[in-house]
Design brief:
Layout: H1 5-16, H2 44-50, E1 75-87, E2 92-103, E3 108-114, E4 118-126, E5 132-134, E6 136-139, E7 143-152, E8 158-166, E9 186-189, E10 201-204, E11 225-234, E12 238-241, E13 244-250, E14 255-266, E15 273-276, E16 279-285, E17 288-294, H3 302-306, H4 309-320, E18 329-334, E19 341-342, E20 347-351, H5 367-379, E21 386-388, H6 395-413, H7 415-433, H8 455-471, H9 473-487, E22 490-492, H10 494-505, H11 510-518, E23 524-532, E24 535-542, E25 554-562, E26 565-573, E27 577-583, E28 590-593, E29 602-605, H12 609-617, H13 622-632, H14 639-648, H15 654-663, H16 672-685, H17 689-699, H18 708-714, H19 720-732, H20 736-743, H21 751-764, H22 770-779, H23 782-796, H24 805-817, H25 821-832, H26 842-851, H27 855-861
Parallel strand pairs: 1-11, 17-18, 18-20, 21-22, 23-29
Antiparallel strand pairs: 1-2, 2-8, 3-7, 4-5, 4-8, 6-7, 9-10, 10-15, 11-14, 12-15, 13-14, 16-17, 19-20, 23-24, 24-27, 25-26, 25-28
Length: 865
Amino acid sequence: MKYPVLGALSLILTCYIVAPAQTTTTSKSATNKTAVRKKVPAPVEAASIAAPAQLPVPNWLPPTNPVQPAATIVHDLLDTKLDVRFDWAKQWLLGTATLTVRPHFYPQNQLVLDAKGFDVKNVELVTSAEKGKDLKFAYDKKKLTVFLDRSYTRTEPCQVRIQYVAKPNEILSTGGSEAITDDKGLYFINPLGTDKTKPRQIWTQGESESSSCWFPTIDKPNQRMTQEISITVESELKTLSNGLLTSSQRNPDGTRTDVWKQSLPAAPYLTMLAVGDFAVVSDLWRGKTVAYYVDPAYQHTAKRVFGNTPEMMEFYSKKLGVDFPWEKYSQVAVHDFVSGAMENTSATTIQQQLVQFTNRELPDVSYDTESVITHEVFHQWFGDYVTTESWANLPLNESFADYSEYLWAEHKYGEDAAGLVLQTKLNNYLQEAQTKREPLIRYRYANREDMFDRHSYDKGGRVLHMLRNYVGDEAFFTALNHYLSQNKFSASEIAKLRIAFEDVTGEDLMWFFDQWFMQRGHPELRITHSYDNGQVALRVRQVQDTLFQPVYRLPVTVTTWNNNQPTDHHIVITKADQTFRLPVSQKPSLVKFDNEGVLLAQLDEERTQDELIYQYNHARSYLQKFEALDGLRNKTADLNVSAIFRNALNDNFWAIRQKSLEGLRRYKGAEGIAIRKELQRLALNEKKGVVRAAAITTLASFPNEDFSELYSAALRDSSYLVVGAAVDALAKSPTVATREPINALQDTKNPGLITALSNYYALNGTADHYQWFLARTKDAPSEVLYTLLENFGTLMQRMPPIEREKGIQRLEVLARTHPMYYVRLGAYKGLNELIASMPVLKPTLQDIRAKEKDERLKSIYSLIP
């Protein structure tokens, strides 16, 4: 993916902190996921972290950005051989690259390569295995132009050998994107071993065009090459790269050289390497090696996290009719990864926070973690086997990987779990659409990194779901097989996908692909209905701004319920205002538009309280139940409605139980005593930790009511989610008896619990907790620091100014230098908490703002008073 790194941030907070319910609310708060693409765009929680509530006014004017066509292919890059070793102290890669190229069509007497931030030592034409002929070259730190010894035709491949030093820290980074937060390509983690909180590692991140930061190449997605990489490292370290490990040889100097070879061609941005002290946990799929590379401390839980990988490979191989194509499949967890995860061919790299858990943490791990894994597995077909020809066509990679999260949930966990995925994806896109509406396929953009957003991921996945629903399962997967088979090991564009579906179905689908892939926006529908004389008059109005968005053609199912029996009516909306007359035997108990929740749309559907109650009682899916509960959430004082919510507390699907708990917050109806007893029962005995935690949060919503005994018991719960919820509840109403049990949690390494403790101490801490904050600013993970740093500022408000010096210095350093922009924001907000009592800090904050280079932060700072 490039599972968005902020998607990853949200995922982690969802796993560990108590707010899981948000992933199911229509008010949009689900994110994923991370990242975390993958390169995943910022999810909702992440969005709330990264930006204040005041958002710019949307602007739907036609784009003024330049057209961004696919790169012109001058040379075909056929093969790359690399021989690399590392200078850890200088953070350099010392490399020799041998490239085999051939003119694409026209004769060429020079070769232009992408090569960022190198020292180029020598360039030669390879004349034999041992010999070469020096070539002249020109280099401007971005492009390496090699002057060949003569003109070569398209039937004449040639080999060029380049000796170079890659210096990634000397590259002027453009800052990456929401999904991929940095673009220097090659990263040394804790290179001198001075940080005891993390291991020494080296890893790469090639997407979008950063492979050329560590080896010379033609760094475009429409190139394909085979490859061989020789990696020389200290003998105690392990390596990973694409393809198979063909040899491993110990050297006289105590190092070891591993040779990794991939014999099938892939795009250069999918090339990777990783070096570190990994534990390698082995698995198998149809005789092919499957492996999980993790920190040694997590080797015993790796199979529980990654163990469904072979089943995913089997499921997708059968579903697509194309077997997993690569020589092996490995997944490596690395520290400080700049994305959530990345689908390098046969060797996915994943942010370690997403997949490394202790035995105690594992029960709380949500489907979000598995969705990252399955997302990257599916990329091995969509993105790697067939690759977008240009970043304008990125949804051909990302939409499919995004939709795989639904496919796997549907297959493995059933329709309710799949429905939750659908809902989350829609909400993620709609959140972004408040301020941004672009076509999925964008030939105009300012920066290719702009493509890694909720449109390319979440909207694209929902569009594929509509396409599947329209053509039917057999045609959908037959067309995908046709598309993959026709375009394997090559670059593709949206027209090829459309043609594959048209070849299979026999239908001209230009209308579907034009309105959903090539046009911006989405339908905004107002639906009303009335009954008269054996007919339901269903009125559908498209109220989106149609000046820059289309009037949509929408095939949809409407279900009417009579005598507890549903009847489906299939209609096609083609106008901005349209009324349909549906035959019924009597006035229906319920008229449900888009009964299965297929449409990517904002719906304003008129239903009475009785209709919503009926909908819940006769719901055939999670989405229908959730929608009914959401529509009734402000009416729980009514006994009929509160009965629905009490019933939902025992639903088979955890997300409905959680939604019901949200609806009962601050309940003031007649069943108050009974409902509180139910909530306490769930808080203590519910099998799923996320629901126990939600029950505690609901109990904490009742003002002036004492549940401290229950909260105290929850501090000993096996689930970190529950413990964190109890700490948050006690933060609002602390007790003397729970003070010491909470302090006893201070050494936890669990990110969510650290966050909960920082919330507690922000409100109730004393000078005794100052040192705890100082220590945690050094060892807390980045996804925790945003909240912790602001809370540190809140705590310091209660301390004498003379005692704040170390804390202020720490916040200032982090606000200026931390590599993650949301951590810099948290540190800035922590300092800003002190302005009222220390106006002397104003010049410091002004200077931080003035020197900040990240455009996202500059925009946010402008909105902070």
